[in-house]
Structure formats: structure tokens, C-alpha cells
Amino acid sequence: MTNWQLIEDVRTRNPLVHTITNIVVANDSANGLLAIGASPIMAAAVEEMTELGEMADAVVINIGTLNADLVAAMLLVGKAANAAGKPVILDPVGVGATTFRRETVRRLLAEIQFAVIRGNIGELASIADVQWQSRGVDAGFGDAERAADIALKVARKHRAVVAISGAVDTISDGERVVTIQNGDPLLPQITGSGCLLSCVIGAFVGITEDYFEATVTASASYALASEYAARKLDEPLPASFRVAFIDELASWQTHDQAKLANIKEVR
Amino acid sequence: MTNWQLIEDVRTRNPLVHTITNIVVANDSANGLLAIGASPIMAAAVEEMTELGEMADAVVINIGTLNADLVAAMLLVGKAANAAGKPVILDPVGVGATTFRRETVRRLLAEIQFAVIRGNIGELASIADVQWQSRGVDAGFGDAERAADIALKVARKHRAVVAISGAVDTISDGERVVTIQNGDPLLPQITGSGCLLSCVIGAFVGITEDYFEATVTASASYALASEYAARKLDEPLPASFRVAFIDELASWQTHDQAKLANIKEVR
Amino acid sequence: MTNWQLIEDVRTRNPLVHTITNIVVANDSANGLLAIGASPIMAAAVEEMTELGEMADAVVINIGTLNADLVAAMLLVGKAANAAGKPVILDPVGVGATTFRRETVRRLLAEIQFAVIRGNIGELASIADVQWQSRGVDAGFGDAERAADIALKVARKHRAVVAISGAVDTISDGERVVTIQNGDPLLPQITGSGCLLSCVIGAFVGITEDYFEATVTASASYALASEYAARKLDEPLPASFRVAFIDELASWQTHDQAKLANIKEVR
Predict the structure, then answer these.
(1) Is the pLDDT of residue A120 over 50?
(2) pLDDT at A144
């Protein structure tokens, strides 16, 4: 389920990750991708989406601050990447919050074949048409069993790897379901920490054909980096953590992921 | 004039603050809101403004990098929040700098009932139609008396709490005027420190009906956090300060605001 | 070729630098400009570009996340600045990556007279119509001789100072070519470090008429600040470096640039 060698391969091969993202997290996503050795490009003009979709090693579509122009760009770049055989990752930020987001995600899922769909439990529940207590872009509370059900359901329906991020990560390819019990509680206190994980998954699926293994490896490594970063802090405070975390991503090939990752196959 | 309990209440109740903001400060505004325990959402598509205006506990409209599409979104979300009885905060960034900004702010003020208007002295002078030496988005120089006059005038005219930020903050509800003499000089050296204050005020007015008290409490707490942050630095340098400041916001319920706030009723 | 007094003059005169930039780097560019004592304004509405082009001391056009609306704004602000005799700086981010970028830059160069064009070697090679191995927004590998040729060619054709940033900076005014061998390897690991340099050059050319001297001085000072920042780190990690670097910009008038700059006239 894991292939820790991918961490080193990303640094050697510098996959080009093209991201349509939002104004809140674009900077951290770019710096995080640079830190792990990937090559970020963030553009959103419809005029260049086809070329970039073909050129990139992976495309990440994040609906955080979407609008009609960006949706048009998302559709173009997703289809171009599909046609070129490049993996596309969906980050359905706050999809349950508004009708526009729900309809946009429905359309993206209908017209683009995604390799990976990554979000929090509230977002994936919305895609699965399952009731979930959710408010704004934050996840509601829930339990592990239902997360596994939702991951499995969405993975099967959309023939994609589904990664539900939270205190416990739940990842499914439609057959298997694994959980990852790693990660420091400071991580979700940083805006865009989920968006950056989607980009990091993009870098990993950009260099391998086993998207499930890549997603599990990226998610576990990312969670472990947050643990390493938190251990370096004098006090558990978010802005210091954010600096320490990006620094950890830059040095994560030196971590002992194989030993520290707490990954279980639950289905 | 103050209610320090609000600090704890924000952390307990996690008000949802919807912000239409600019590409420069969006990340700091989101991280700052998370740090104080609020729940940020930043979206700007006209298609979802009505829903978000109804759903949010407070709406912050920041014109930093405005354009015609964003103005349409601002009007929609402001009216929806008004209709739903949710407070709306205006941050008229650089309003005096261009005709487009002046006209946009005039229109926003005419069509939306704001709970709070927060800006620097140059911005509020422009709204008050008072002459003020101003350049770009930076405040010009002035004196306390004129700030009080301007705050009072704008507060009365627009039936809103007005907060003028600067070395001394001046806040009026159209009857009273208070000044707050707190805050470290490093604070304005961070881009978006004013924009984040507007969001923080949004979080406070989102959980109480006394907007004046909420604005004074938020402003004083914010200024005090900058003093705490500055004291932790080896040298007074801006990027280190920025990290320390967001960290302080995450721990400000442990500060002794009641003792350290220098608040005076001047009218 | 250098005038170190400009560093102090920027801090005293606070040039207003208007930047049309991208969602990835806007925050760092604003904080970096504030750190050196300049006054940033970032706006992009076509309605206000003429006023801002006239008002600013310098205008920086960065095509990082361009779209049709932004291109219209770029043309307006560039022409307004030209008419008002204000210097305009072009940062052709990733110009070689897509047809839309190439055509946009061609049009900007045809309709606006730039004072300075700053980019990496891949971007300048694209403008010079010279073959260069390039991928996405990252520079390819090359040699000093070809960089000098490209700088000279573009500088002559567009009657602008050309600054090619990299491990070695190459700067030409169409007659002379100088190289700067300063700068820490961490600098390009920060997204937008080149974009911020374009803004810093904007601040310098905003207060002097000798654009070549201003560009060489700004570039060398900037590279030296990265060396100072790197020396303060316990470990060479990017997020810590980013904080230290902006801090160094805030204190760079205390550096000994004259002694440490490694500048050579090579043509």
C-alpha cells in the first residue's frame, strides 16, 4: 500500500504540477510543492488550459474561490489532461456549502475522469449524497465506519481513489480501504493544509501509475511531516508550526516514514 | 465599552466569517481568523453570495483588489446579510486613491447597511469628504481631534460603528468616541494587518448584538496581541513579527487585556 | 554601475510601486516592498488603471496568473505610466510555457515602453526567440556567455534594461553587460522570489533616472540579503529562510553591499 521510494523520486524527477487554486492558499501550495521537489505552475486563463493540461505531469483542481471563468478553465484543463493521460486531482473545497459548489462539482465529476478526489469528511459526504453535519468549509464530526463507507461509495461511483482527510485519514480505491492515524492537531489550524495535501498527492500520482499507493504514501508522509514539525516547536502555535511544517516537507526524505506510519487496512 | 469575555466566546462558538477580500491578504486573514477560533470562508462568485450572506455569522467586504465582478458579489452578499440580520463590515482599502474606489464605496454605503466601517484615517476622511493628505493605500498624517470628528461624522451618517486604525485607534458609534492607545509599530509594517483586524471585528460582531463593544474589544485585543508578539522578538523585524503575531492571536485568551488596554472615552 | 545610496533613498522617499501581479506571490511582494521602505499598491481593475499608472512612482507588470481582463489592465496601466513618464517593469513569468503567454508578452512589448525586463534565462530566451531548454515556469540550464548575448539582444531590441536572474545575474542596458555572483541557493526555492525582485527593482527605478544603475544595485542588494538571511539559519530550510529573508530586506541599509557585492563588467 505504500512505496516510500516515491518521496525520493519526486525530488529527483520534479513533476510539474499544474494547479487551479484559490487566492487563500496559492502561496503555501506553491512553496509546499517546491519544498518536496515538485515544480508548481498556477494558471487559470482559459486560453492556456489545454496546453498546460497536456504539459503537466498532474493537474489539481481546487474549487476554493471558484467563479464562472475558473469553472470553464477547470473543465478545459481536466479534459486536456484526461486526453493526454495525465492524472487529475479534485479538491472539492466547501462543496456542501452552496448550490453553486454542488453543481460545479457534479459537472466536474461528470465531464472529467479524476484519478484522486481528496477532501474532508463533510465534502466527501456531500459528493456521496450522504447526510453530514457540516458548516462552511469545515468538516463536521463523524465516525470511522461512516468515513469508510463514504470513501468506498465515492471511489466506486467515480472510479477514483478517494482520500478523506481528518484526524484519521481514510483512503479507498473502491476495493480496499485504509486508515492513517498520523498527523498533528496543528495541521488543520493552518488554512490550506488540505489544499496543499491535494497538490502533494498530485506530485506523487504524477510519477507513478499506482494512484492508490501514491495517495496513501503521500498522505502518510504528509501527516508524519506535521508530527516532526510539531516536535520542533517550543509551544504548539499555528504560525510557527506553518513555517516548521514547510521546512519539514523540504527535508522529509530524511524521515523514517516506514517505521512511524500507522496505516491499517480496514476493509 | 469592553467585554473581554467575547474573546473566549469567539473560541467557543466559532463564528463563520465570510470575507470577500483581496489576493494580497487572503491567506493571513484566513489564518488569523482560524487562530482566534473563528471559521473563515472566502468566496466571491455571484452565484453563491446570497446563500453565503445568509449562512455566515458576519460578512466582511474588503475592496483591496476589487473589480466589476467582485463589486457585484459585494452588493449581493451585503444585501443578503442585511436581509438575514447578519452584520456586515466594510474595509474601504485605498478608497481615496481612485475614482473607481470612491464610487464603489459610495454605492456599497448606499445599498448596504454596515454594522462596522473600519479603515485608516485617510480612508475614513475620504468617506467623510474631508481633506486629508493621503497617498496610495497608506494613511496620511493627522491629529486625534480630527480623527474623532471624522469617526463621529461617518458613524452618524451611515448609522454604523466606525473604527479608524492607526498608532491610536479611534472608534465611534455616532454618540461616544473612544481611543485605544495600544499596538506595536511593527503591526502596520505587515501588509493586511488592517484587513485582518476587519475580519477579527467581524468574528466579534458575529456573536453579539453590541457592535460598539465588540469593535472596541476586538481592536484593543488585537493591538495588545501586537505588543505581546513584539516582546517575543530578538529584533523588531517584520517577517518574524508576522509569525509571532498570528501565534499571539492563537493564545490571546490568555492575555491580560483588562489590565493593559489603554482605552479612553474622549467624547 | 552601482549607487548604494539608493537603498537609503528608497527608505526615505517611500516610492509608490503599483503592481499587477498574481495570486501566488502578491502577499510576499507587498511585504517585501514594505520591508525596504516602499509603498505597495496592488490593483487590477481596468476602471482605475489610468489613475494608478499616473500616480505611481513605478509600475510592475507580472503575468504569473494572467487572464484576458488582467491583460487589458496591464495595457492600460502601462500606457498611462508611459504617458506620465513613470518607469514600467515587465516580469514575463513562464512566458515560454504557453502560446497565450508568448502572445501576451509580444503585445505588451509592442504597446508599452518598458524601463526594465526581468526574468529567468528561459523567459528571456523566449523573448529573444532563442532556443532554450525550459519547462513550466522554471529556468532551464545554460551558460554565462549565452545569457550575456540574450540580455544584450533583448535590451537593444526593446530599449530596456534587461535583468536575467539566476545563480549568476546578468544585466544589460544594451551597451554594457554586468554579472552579479551573489545570492544563496535557498532564494529560488521560495516561490515569488523573482517576482519580488521585480518589485524591488521597481522601487529603485521609481526614484532615479539611471535605470541600469538602479537595476544593478537592487539586484546585488537583493542577492546579498539572501546571503545574510541564510547565514542566520540553523539549517538551510526554505520556510525559515523566507522569514529571515524578508527580515533582512527590512534591515538591508545596514549591510555592507559595497564590500560584498561581486559585480563584473563582462562586455
Answers:
(1) yes
(2) 83
CB atoms within 10 A of CB B69: 16
Give backbone dihedrals phi and psi of C220, rounded to 5 degrees, phi first. -70, -40
pLDDT of amino acid C105: 98
CA distance C43 to chain A (A): 14
User: Residue C34 is nearest to which of B27, B67, B238, comparing CB atoms?
Assistant: B238
Confidence of residue A142 (pLDDT cuts 50, 70, 90): low
Count CB neighbours of C262 within 10 A. 13
Determine whether the annotation assigns residue A118 to a binding site: yes
> Looking at chain B, which subunits does it touch, using at least 3 CB pairs closer than 8 Å as the criterion?
A, C
Distance from CA of C41 to the nearest CA of A (A): 17
Band (pLDDT 50/70/90 cuts) for residue C212 is: very high
Nearest to B247 among A25, A66, A239 (CB): A239
**CA of A245, closest CA in chain C: separation in Å?**
8
**Residue C218 CB contacts under 8 Å (≥ 6 apart), including other chains:** C6, C197, C200, C201, C203, C204
C-alpha cell of A62?
481546487
d(CA C92, CA C120): 9
Across the interface, which of C27, C34, C250 has its CB nearest the CB of B27? Answer: C27
Q: How far apart are CA C1 and CA B95, in angstroms?
A: 40
Average predicted confidence (pLDDT) for chain C? 95
Interface of B with A (CB under 8 A): 14, 16, 18, 21-23, 26-27, 30-31, 34-35, 39-48, 51-52, 55-56, 69, 242-247, 250-251
Q: Is A151 helix (H, G, I), strand (E, B) or coil?
A: helix
C-alpha distances out from residue C97 to A7, A157, B225, C64, C102, Å: 26, 35, 45, 11, 8
Q: What is the pLDDT of residue A140?
A: 47
- In this prediction, the answer to ipTM > 0.90 reads yes
Residue C137 has pLDDT above 70, yes or no: no
CATH topology of domain B5-265: UDP-N-acetylmuramoyl-L-alanine:D-glutamate ligase (3.40.1190)
- Residue B139's pLDDT band (cuts 50, 70, 90): low
Q: Which residue of chain C is at minimal alpha-carbon distance from B242?
A: C243
Amino acid C144: pLDDT: 83
Q: Which residues of C touch B66 (CB under 8 A)?
A: 43, 45
Neighbour tally for B240: CB within 10 Å: 21
CB atoms within 10 A of CB C51: 18
Ramachandran bin of A264, using left for φ above 0, alpha for ψ from -120 to 50, beta for the remaining angles: beta
Q: CA–CA separation, A168 vs C142, rounded Å?
A: 46
Residue A255 DSSP code? S
Binning chain B into helix, strand and coil, the percentages to the nearest 5 are 50, 15, 35
Residue A77 bridge partners (DSSP) = none
Measured distance CA(C61)–CA(C202) in Å, rounded = 10
Query: A40-96, pLDDT tens digit by residue?
Result: 999 999 999 999 999 999 999 999 999 999 999 999 999 999 999 999 999 999 999
How much is the average pLDDT of A108-114? 98
| pLDDT at residue A15, as a whole number | 98
Chain C interface, Cβ < 8 Å to B = 14, 16, 18, 21-23, 26-27, 30-31, 34-35, 39-48, 51-52, 55-56, 69, 242-247, 250-251
The domain ranges of chain B are 5-265
DSSP B135: B
Cα–Cα distance, B92 to B118 (Å, whole number) = 7
